[in-house]
Amino acid sequence: MDLDTAKQELEEFIPHVRNISDSSIRKMAGRDLTRFKQFKKQGIAVKFGRFSQKENNQIRKNVEEFLSITGIDSAEKLLFTSRYPEDKETISRLKAEHLFCEKISEGIPRPWRLIYYRARKMFDPNNYKGRYTKEEKEKLKKYHALHGNDWKKISEMMSRSNLSVAMKYSEIKSANNYGPWSKEETQKLMHAVEEVIRKRMEMEDANSLSSSEKSHRDLSIDREKLYQKLPWTEIEAKVGTRYWRQCKQKWTTILTKKMTKGQQLYRGTKGLQAKINLIKRLYEMKVEDANEVNWEELSNTIGDVPRAYVQAKFYKLKVSCVPFWQKKTFSEIIDYLFEKKLPELEEKL
Question: Where is the HTH myb-type domain (predicted)?
């Protein structure tokens, strides 16, 4: 298939395909196009964004089946073949013979490349090693000075995943503060957020709307724009002294305080009631994965707050109340909270 035809056919499934490099388009035409067409016949759309629990389980199943078929003895060898130079030739031959690309993406309506990256993240034993020690941070800075952004090489030297070392370096590359925010920093953050929101709104094409429609539109979306999908790395650069995650957390705190007029919604009896309501609502939703939860809808279980605030409270709840929560599925966590923690909270209230 020639490049223009590939672009034209892929555009039906991936609207932004013309922004992708020619080499990636050629790979997608070979690995993805036939699958996308089959999914279309079944009425299934191509997906992007976060993977659901169902998709993660399908990846596990695909990897386990491929290991069983080929006799390769670990997912790490299959997905990180370069770590095993003595077995590389044999593993590469088995992957080619048994159609690795097709097998690993079976039953998942996503581009192959995203499925492969997700599988590598799930099965990388170097990906779940906890906090970095001071010695590791110093090593990371030293290796970056020697090898730049060659995260693959640095990850092998540190026995951490590519993603982990890249994200950690982003966090420590500048002399960020970790204590309380100063007034100057808070002002910088508020100005930075205002700047990116204004810039985004100016870029949006609202010419087709009448003045009354535009007024109504602004009223209905302004608040949403205050906390959804903000470019936090850009905001981090504008603030200058804080890591992007700190900026996001601080902004959520500022918004929550403004939206609730400074009320303490998660303390004392109000806090107990909020936790009870949150657990009950999550249980009633009967969803299998956190990605399926409408956090916006859940915000009124606590009060008039941003959804990030609700997500943060749920995270603290599961970490503090659910033993071995990392090994449980989302629905198992909710069941545990409902069956074990809820009666305790109600009695305490």
Answer: 124-161
pLDDT given at position 220: 40
Give the number of other Cβ atoms within 10 Å of residue 47's Cβ.
15
Alpha-carbon separation of residue 147 from 81, 136, 141, 152, 153 (angstroms): 22, 16, 10, 10, 8
- 3 state DSSP class of 189: helix
Report whether 310 contacts 299 (CB < 8 A).
yes
Closest CA to 256 of 303, 220, 298: 303
CB 302 within 8 A of CB 265: yes
The verdict on pTM exceeding 0.90 is: no
CATH of domain 134-173: 1.10.10
Q: 290: Cβ–Cβ under 8 A, 6 or more apart, which residues?
A: 330
Would you kindly state where each structural domain of the chain is located, as residue ranges?
A: 3-123, 134-173, 183-206+221-260, 268-347
CA atoms within 13 A on the CB side of 215: 3
For position 108, what pLDDT does the model report? 92
Instruction: Match 């508020």 to its residue by tokens.
Output: 190
CA 182 – CA 168 distance, rounded (Å): 24
Tens of pLDDT, residue by residue over 82-121, are 888 899 899 999 999 999 988 999 999 998 888 998 898 8
How far apart (Å, rounded) are the C-alpha atoms in residues 36 and 16? 15
DSSP state of 19: G
The Cα 140–Cα 282 span in angstroms is: 40
DSSP 7-75: HHHHHTT-TTGGGS-HHHHHHHHHHTHHHHHHHHHTT-----SSPPHHHHHHHHHHHHHHHHHH----H
